[in-house]
Amino acid sequence: MAAPPGAVPTELRVYLRVEDLQRQFAAYLGTPTRARGYPPTEGQHSLIIEVAPGLAIERATDLACKAVPEVEVGLLFVERQFGVLELHGSDLTRLDAAGTAVLDGLGVAAHDQLAPRILYSDVIEEITDQHAVIINRNREASMVLPGESLLVYELTPALFASVAANEAEKAAPAATLVTVSMIGAAGRLYLSGATKDVLAAREAITRALTSIEGRHS
Q: Of 28, 34, 95, 118, which one is least surrounded by beta carbons within 10 A?
């Protein structure tokens, strides 16, 4: 169905394929505050889409579900300005087909998405007990322990924190995923563990974001 006269064209802000969901990140996506649909599991693949205006995500969801009923909707969220959809499944071909249906139906292309921008990144070594306590009161995943090193990232668009979290866990599975904030004005990631692990995670995040950014240059 064509958009009504005067309607604002749909903007594709984020189109991310997150392959091979890692254990901690998959569990995070499956928490009630995130996956209000079907929770993903470790080893599945995820496609995360963000559009504006926010309600356009309902059309995106309709396109995906009708084209490939086998994919599962984990997250459907309409915030003030943007709409977010997370799809997942074990068959990457089907997931890609659902994504193609969304792109074609909205009249956009994957390369239209915004490039990631890192606002801040730091590794804080040997955090204190007080610091750990206050972080843990605001966490959305596991706990950081005193004496560990802490990797923090802030980036835009917010959904790029999902790629950062999954790639960090691939590179440093022994590290602890403390918090991932992937909806809002900016995305944030907290990852703790041994210094060598959080440094490896930071390198993996840099590679992943640089690769995505390179597709826009």
A: 118
